[in-house]
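User: Structure please.
Assistant: Input sequence and predicted structure:
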Amino acid sequence: MPKKEENEEINEEELESEDESLEDSETGTEKENGNGEVETLTKQEINLKDIGEDRTVNSEISSEMQKAYIDYAMSVIVARALPAVEDGLKPVHRRILYAMDQIGLDKGPTKKSASIVGEVMGKYHPHGDVAIYDSLVRMAQDFSLRYPLVHGQGNFGSMDGDSAAAQRYTEAKLDKISLELLQDLDKETVPFVNTYDNSRKEPIVLPGKLPNLLVNGSSGIAVGMATNIPPHNLTEVCDAIMLLIDKPNTEIKDLLEVIKGPDFPTGGVMVTENLLEMYSTGKGAVTLRGSVKTESGKNKEIIVIDQIPYQVNKSELVKQIAELSRDKKLTDVSDIRDESSKGKVRVVIELKKGVDPKFTINRLYKSTNLQTRFNSTFVALDNGVPKTMNLKQILQAYILHRRKIVRKRSEFDLKKAESRLHIVEGLLIAQKQIDKIIETIKKSKATLEASENLQKKFSLSKKQAEAILEITLKQLTALEREKLEKEEKDLKELIKELKLILNDEIEILKIIKRELNELKKNYGDERRTKVIRAVKEIEEKDLVLKQDVVITITEKGYIKRMPFKSYHEQRRGGKGVIGTDLSTDDFVKQLLTCSTHDYLLLFTKRGRLMWLKAHKVPETQRYGKGQAIVNLLSIKDDEISSVLSVKDFKDYLFMVTKKGMVKKIRLDMFSKPRNVGVRIINLPNDNSDSVVDVKRISEKQQVMLMSADGQAIRFNSDEVRNMGRSSYGVSGIKLDKGDEVVSMEIVPMEKTKSTILTLTEKGYCKRSEVDDYRLTGRSGKGVINIKVSEKTGKVIRTIEIDEKDTIVVTTKKGMAIRTKAKAIRVMGRAAQGVRVINLKQGDRVGDVAKLVEVENVPEESN
């Protein structure tokens, strides 16, 4: 078809209301002219002319446009875009099914689609053939309709967005289930109206035994309103209707015990969190996900998508995934293949070796159409009036419609049965007096006279007499008489049954239930869409693999993240493995282990708190320098004093300054991260004091403060009250001149049997039992912690550990060693300890950290 002609037909369909106004203009209106003669004016002429010489009517263009647009809007709403609640069909779909039924496509072979389109367009639907064919195609697509109404043969499109073949190539006929919509159409069950050219009749709605509006859904955009009704499972809908028949006062929440939610033809997984609201108001949305499973390949995991969300283009979905992989947003994907065939979906996503597929799946849900929202609007025409309907109203409308259909069908069958019984009774009269009947007929001169004679002599009606005159000789046998007697008996029983139905509304409802059970038996199937009650909103952490990592921070302000397995265990005294490639004037000053899902709370020496997700710390190879913290956080003229990893924001923060001041503050005050950070302590303006350490603390825990010169104090944390962000704190320990606090430990009450590990700058280390440090009040001088000398150097850091723990010691030149705590023996408080790491010339210990849940990994040679 040339392009110009195709566009002309599309425009013709869009201007349906204009066509109707032109049809109306053909009907003339008689009006007397000035000469007393009557002339006929069309409506079009009347709108433009009036009595007078020029016969022109002046009218505001705004009012004319308003009237014309209202006419157009009503035409679109009623005659094009919205389905009827009775049969769930728009006019074009109804006309296609009716036309196919009229030309005998309910059985037998298929017929060319072009022939069907021509039949529909020529007799019932005067619009473009493209629109009609598109509607026919959709009714044949098993990925568009939950229960296809048309059986197609040929290429009717695909989930990849491929168009159907041209109508001259494809063939179609009615699917068996569509006959449930058309059944009883010939029994005067629904009203008929003239077609567009008044040449024939067409039904306003179909009898609709199948609850099509819900089972197949509908979508359309009218003027000022739209509808988008999702498909449902036939078995569930039938059960809900029967429940409402038995218990008319059933509430929507009880109906949802039967109808689990929409059931989409493409399957998938649906979240039913807001179903009650959607079905109660007629508006709402459901979250729909594709169905995903994992398979094991050769040393790698494979993600397989075997169902996609409704109305999602599969090829576009594959393209989205490929683009994410190309743009490095799906870094774990190594290959993507579409292995779908014969209507079965199978999209294969190969992952790199050792990758956890859970996080890739979450990323697919978050960033592609593998997860969508289906927005529902239950708008339908109820007796020709557009309404937003809830679930119960739709089911009630179906029941009301079917009650009318069953009643009209029964009335038709009763009328037909009574008419036939009347004839049969006449034939039986003739059988009993056959000789007299024959004699009367023989004596009559003509058929009309014979009929009149039979009516008078045997008290027959005109119809009975005519039926007797039409019988053949073979119908006079005894066998035929027995058949008539049986038919009479059956007809009387049928009439009795039909009258019972018409006189008892309960019987009509029983019939509706029986027919619904037949629908379930013949067409019912299992749900395709799986239902889950709720799904957690995909957060940033759900897109990141949860793994243990090591975070290091250097004196010069560089931070990096490494997998926990980058470190290996060594025995005490080993030289360790290089963990960081640093310049000679920089060193690792803090090291901690955490999860990639944790928050890092970074505390500066000037008393500010900054937030950073652990997974946002750049992952760096063992020899990498890392990234400057100032490039990740807004830190100016300040340094990081300590870093704390948290999974939640419960309990308190306990902090200590270089001068021995301590402060306790609630952690939940910092549960809402800010880009610029917040101040957590009010330090002196002369920069004479700074924050040394900040730790998390609970009620009833004890605090230990350690100084560089080897002093220590232990007191209950409850001695320090909870304070606000603007306070400075209270004294925690009295220090000698030149001494300063270097470390703080939090000791739970139940762990007083644990030990304190003390590490000096020259690599000496020892463990002492916590109970060796007597419990005192805060602000005292404390007791000796370690014997500090020129040989040992000053205390760098202390940590509270158990024998099962593992520690990592780092040096200023970037060396690192990992060892079990039990390898370091317990000594008295006054001991100087033993060497834990052999330092190269000019190197010094930078920090020590405790690792938890250590995996056993092979040792490496020194």
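The radius of gyration is 44 Å.
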